[in-house]
Amino acid sequence: MSDFPTGGVAVVGGTGPQGKGLAYRLARAGHPVVLGSRDADRAADASGELRSLPGVAAPVDGASNEDAVRGAATVLLAVPYQGHAELVASLADALAGKLVVSCVNPLGFDKGGPYGLSVAAGSAAEEAAGLVPSAVVVGAFHHLAAPLLLDPEADLSHEDVLVCGDDADAKARVLVLAADVTGGRAVDAGRLRLAAQLEPLTAVLISVNKRYKTRSGVALTGLTPAAVKEEVA
Amino acid sequence: MSDFPTGGVAVVGGTGPQGKGLAYRLARAGHPVVLGSRDADRAADASGELRSLPGVAAPVDGASNEDAVRGAATVLLAVPYQGHAELVASLADALAGKLVVSCVNPLGFDKGGPYGLSVAAGSAAEEAAGLVPSAVVVGAFHHLAAPLLLDPEADLSHEDVLVCGDDADAKARVLVLAADVTGGRAVDAGRLRLAAQLEPLTAVLISVNKRYKTRSGVALTGLTPAAVKEEVA
């Protein structure tokens, strides 16, 4: 795939904290966003909330998941893993041929805390790719804490967004989007199959959050900002 | 388990780059170390190499894996995953009752690069715990690049060592060791089962290393050094 439009972004699961937070940061960076939800009215309400937040610099609208997807070239999947396969399958026609960014974290919780769920496809991102073969799937945004994304005062520029995928052009596009979301670095983490490592790492972050009463995120050492920028440019 | 001696550390796989590097950093911090190897002569040679490096502040010796383990209260497993179960099983008597720190990364490599291997027990750390039920297993040190550990000039204090385990006292002991290894932060990452996330994350780091021609490592955002130190103290 040689080119991706830089137009609007649809966020499937756009009324959940992760989806809404990513949408807010994208809109602040000037990307038109359409929040998708199973319930178009809820999506419209959530889009109104986002429009009232400081710094929004692009249109934010709400629609059904399917309408949101149909109107966008780039689609963020920001849904819980529970029900993920069914939802992606139900949107398969609309998702065909699109750039799909999987932000899904397959996690379980029990009295021992959070843990990574076993996923037959390897990862939620690979599961989506298997369900919509004509889409180009990239994994990203697994580790950004939703409350920080939604906090207008929170500076995320010290957090790395790790991006994985098998299509170089699609990955390059998502690296740009990711840098726009945080104002910091986006890192090419390798092949799509490494989503199997990125997704459940969130269980470690949640565990650390509980232990240290914080909102932790990921940064890699050994990378200069300049080196990463050069690669993205 | 209420108390762990702070005496010498045995490093099973002490002639490999990861084991040798961890041993060097421990010896620099004043911990007596015994390198273990299948071949005691190779272990003796490697210990001589380490003694010649700058800053070594404690005895460094070499022995067979079994002798090394028998003489130490704390044992680092720093071996490749290939052959891990057989090796641990062969040392089970010697490992009984000890504090065992698993540094093992179950990784595969193919033309697509590195990837996390599927481990029936969940992780190498849990595999070791299953093979030696009387040992207390903690996971740590998965993400420190061996060439940096062995480079006397390399400053590792900006890297986080993520430590997981189910025994609070054992984990506290390893958090101290880990901070000694890097001179920086050690982070309580949660339950031992989260080794299933920490171990294969190394595949992402290796992928990033190749992409950006660096030696990457992990740091978490959202944790102040003070907060972590207070928890350790």
From TrEMBL, chains A, B:
One of its GO terms (molecular function) is NADP binding. Residues 9-106 form the Pyrroline-5-carboxylate reductase catalytic N-terminal domain. InterPro entries: NAD(P)-bd_dom_sf (IPR036291), NpdG (IPR010185), P5C_Rdtase_cat_N (IPR028939), STEAP_metalloreductase (IPR051267). Keywords: Oxidoreductase. One of its GO terms (cellular component) is plasma membrane. GO terms for biological process: copper ion import; NADPH regeneration. It comes from the Bacteria. This is Pyrroline-5-carboxylate reductase catalytic N-terminal domain-containing protein. The lineage of its organism: Bacteria, Bacillati, Actinomycetota, Actinomycetes, Streptosporangiales.
